[in-house]
Design a protein that fits this description.
The chain is an all-alpha fold. It has a single domain, classed as Up-down Bundle (Fumarate Reductase Cytochrome B subunit). 67% of the residues lie in helices and 2% in strands. The chain is built from 10 helices and 2 strands. A two-stranded antiparallel ribbon has the order 1-2. Helix 3 packs across helix 6 and helix 9 packs across helix 10. The chain starts with 10 loop residues before the first strand and ends in a 12-residue tail after the last helix.
Length: 218
């Protein structure tokens, strides 16, 4: 494969619009998570001072959650068709421990998104719905039935902790664990070698089928 020029060694991984939506999702989630932690635990209340104080945090936390829902809905609409778990993905999940030790040869070929990324997508979607539903109850508790309020008080922090844990894992996998991934979401491109190693099915379908070393934005 000829990699003589910089342009020929770059494959478009994510379009500009995909990256903008992704980072809006990330920033809105970060704001909502941190302000939520400030409201949840006295030990973390110091976070409130970072975001303007307790009253400000209490007022803006639900709106941060609403923004997260709106931008995540856009991401969901754009990517849901690519997130279906097929037979190879289920096989990949059973052998996910090989991915943790970088033994990619023992795994089924991954497409544009591997099974771990797809699973995170659906997990965040499910718990996002739970966060929204419980959050609405907590936003207007005075008009909600007592049982609903009690369930929301339990469900909201549990769903938040699981979602935050998933995002921490996502950040680790997209930076330290898999070098090159972060560049794909910042600059939009990856190298052919990275693509062939981590997402060989996507590489073959969208690069080798064109007979070139350069993928074009969709």
């Amino acid at each position: 494969m000829d990699l003589k020029t910089p342009n020929e060694s770059r494959l478009t991984r994510f379009s500009v619009s995909e990256r903008v939506v992704h980072w809006l999702v990330a920033l809105s989630f970060l704001y909502t998570a941190l302000t939520g932690l400030a409201l949840w635990s006295p030990r973390l209340y110091w976070l409130a001072s970072v975001f303007g104080g307790g009253t400000t945090v209490r007022g803006w936390h639900p709106w941060g959650g609403l923004l997260f829902v709106l931008v995540f809905a856009s991401m969901f609409r754009n990517w849901r068709s690519q997130m279906s778990l097929d037979r190879d993905d289920r096989h990949w999940l059973r052998k996910a421990h090989h991915y943790a030790v970088h033994d990619y040869a023992a795994l089924p070929e991954a497409g544009r998104f591997n099974a771990g990324q797809k699973s995170l997508f659906w997990m965040q979607s499910i718990f996002g719905i739970l966060l929204v539903a419980s959050g609405v109850v907590l936003w207007w508790p005075e008009i909600m039935p007592r049982l609903l309020r009690e369930l929301a008080v339990l469900a909201h922090p549990v769903a938040a902790m699981i979602s935050i844990g998933g995002i921490i894992l996502h950040i680790y996998m997209g930076t330290a664990a898999v070098p090159g991934s972060f560049r794909g979401m910042i600059q939009g491109w990856v190298t052919p070698g990275w693509a062939a190693s981590h997402h060989p099915k996507w590489y073959r379908e969208h690069v080798e089928s064109t007979g070139t070393t350069r993928a074009h934005s969709r």
